[in-house]
């Protein structure tokens, strides 16, 4: 399998953007932008993050408490900062005496270590959720290698396919149009 093709294919799956935070062995706060995050179980409450084995975060995280900070749409500079593009203007504040967390995120999930699974060139870190907070706002999204925001959302009737016979169709898959109220 061509790794670039697989990466491009997987990039079509829109994800949220998180910063996973923990402490280094010296006790300093450390964070890494991660978009490979998912819930695993509600009972017991478990979540999973996937990180490259060569990343600094993968070296700090195993066996340590950690937090998953779900970024708001306004926190793109924070996402870039923790992805290795340092930004002096990235507006973030650490707090928490134990596990460091980022202030003003859309949600924060604080975890105790539960399990670690080696998977190819990544490590899957499973955490047992001990505490979570939820704030108002909209998420920062990642799609096809770039940041995005939610568009218009609606609770009206489901969208209907439109066949214009020209643009508006992608191969055999119709694009959808939201009904006009």
Rg value: 19 Å
- Identify low-pLDDT runs: 167-181
- Based on the structure given, which CATH architecture is correct? Roll
Mean pLDDT: 84
Shape: globular
Q: Could you state the order of secondary-structure elements as H and E?
A: HEEEEEHEHEEEEEEEEEE
Largest sheet: 7 strands, antiparallel
Number of domains: 1
Count of beta strands: 16
Say what the CATH topology is: Pnp Oxidase, Chain A
Number of helices: 3
End-to-end Cα distance, whole Å, is 46 Å
Question: Percent of residues in helical segments?
Answer: 10-25%
Instruction: Supply the CATH superfamily name.
Output: Electron Transport, Fmn-binding Protein, Chain A
| Strand numbers in spatial order across the main sheet | 3-2-6-9-10-5-4
The CATH class name reads Mainly Beta
Describe it.
A 7-stranded antiparallel sheet has the order 3-2-6-9-10-5-4. Strands 1-11-12 form a 3-stranded antiparallel sheet, with no helix packed on it. A two-stranded antiparallel sheet has the order 7-8. The model is unreliable at 167-181 (pLDDT under 50). 11% of the residues lie in helices and 41% in strands. It has helices at 3-10, 56-60, 76-82; strands spanning 15-16, 18-23, 29-34, 37-41, 46-52, 66-70, 94-95, 101-102, 107-119, 122-134, 141-143, 146-148, 160-161, 169-170, 173-174, 176-177. The chain has one domain (3-151): Electron Transport, Fmn-binding Protein, Chain A (Pnp Oxidase, Chain A). It has 181 residues and is mainly β.
